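>> received
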Amino acid sequence: MTAPHEERETGAPQSTPPSDVAVRLNGVTRRYGRRGEELVALDDVDLTVHRGDIFGVIGHSGAGKSTLIRMVNALESPSAGTVHVDGVDLASLSTSALRAARKHTAMIFQQFQLLETVTVLDNVAMPLRLDGIARHEARARATEALEFVGLGARLASYPGQLSGGQKQRVGIARAIVRNPAVLLCDEATSALDPSTTLQIIDLLRRVNREYGTTILVVTHEMDVIKDLCHSVAVMEGGRIVEQGTVMDLFVQPQTAIAQAFVGTVIPHELPERVRRAVGGHPLWRLRFLDDEVTSPIVGALISEFGLQVNILHADMTDIQDRTVGHMIIQVAGDDAQRASAYGYLGSRVVSLEEVVL
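>> returned
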C-alpha cells in the first residue's frame, strides 16, 4: 500500500489545526426527542485524540459510545458543540464537501458488513470503485491491502467461506484501502473469540505503527483497552467521567465505573465470604508497577517492622510492555508499627490505600 494520506481528495474546506490533533470534540451534546421525552445520548463531551494515537472509549451499553463515534464520521450531527476531524469543522461543510471529508475516515464494524455475493477482493475494492477509480487500479490496491492483513491467498473467496476472524481482516483491509487519516472501530472484536481478538489487536497495532493511522476504538471490553490502546476515556450516562493514559487508568482509577472495568482484568475486590471473615486489623490495597512487582516488600514489613501480614489477594498483568500488580494485605501490629510501615510502603509502591469494608 502507499503511505497514508497521500491521495486526499479536494473539495473540503481546509484549515490548519494544531499539528498533533486528529479528532476534537468540544462541548458536544446530542439530544433525541422520543414520545415527548428528551433523551440525552451525549452530554457536553470534550475529547481530543492526537495524531498517531490509539484512543479507546469504554463504557457499558447505553453510555453514548456509538453515538460519539457516529459524530466523528458525520453520520450524526451534534445538537450543540463542534466536531473537528483532521482539522475540519464537520458542521461547516456542504453536502459534497462532507462526502469528501468522510473519505478521510474509515469504519470497522462489529458484524463485518461485507457483501456476501461478491468476492473478498471486490469487497475491498468497492470503496475505490465508488470513488470512480478504474477497476484494475482498485483491484490492485485492494490486493495490496488484503496481503497486508494476511489474506493474499483468499482474494477469490466469498465472505461465507471465511471464519469470523478472516471476515474482520477483510473489513480492516476495506477500511485501510483508502489510506484514511482516522480509523474508527465500533466494537470491532465483540463478535470474535479471545484468540482471534488478540490477532485482530495485533493487526490494528501494525496499521497504527506502519501507516501512522490514528485509531479511535469504542468497546465494552477492558482487555481490548489494555492490549491495544495508548489513551482511554471512560463514559457513563453520556458523559466522559475519566480519561488519561491506559496505564494511569489501571494504576489509579478515580471513579467507581473505572475501578469496575479495571477489576474485570485485575480482580481487586475480596469475595463476600472473605470480607465477612476478616476484621480487627486494617486492610491495605497496594498497586505495583514494573520492578515494584518483584520487590520483597511483604518480607520487609515482617522483618523490619515486626508486623504480621496476611496476603488476602494478589494478582498481576502485563499492559502492553509494562507490568501492573495488585495486592490486598491484612496487617497486625501496634499503631506505631503500622504507621511506620504505611509510610515505608507509600514511597515504594505506585498506589497505597486503606480498604474500607
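>> The chain is about 35% helix and 30% strand.
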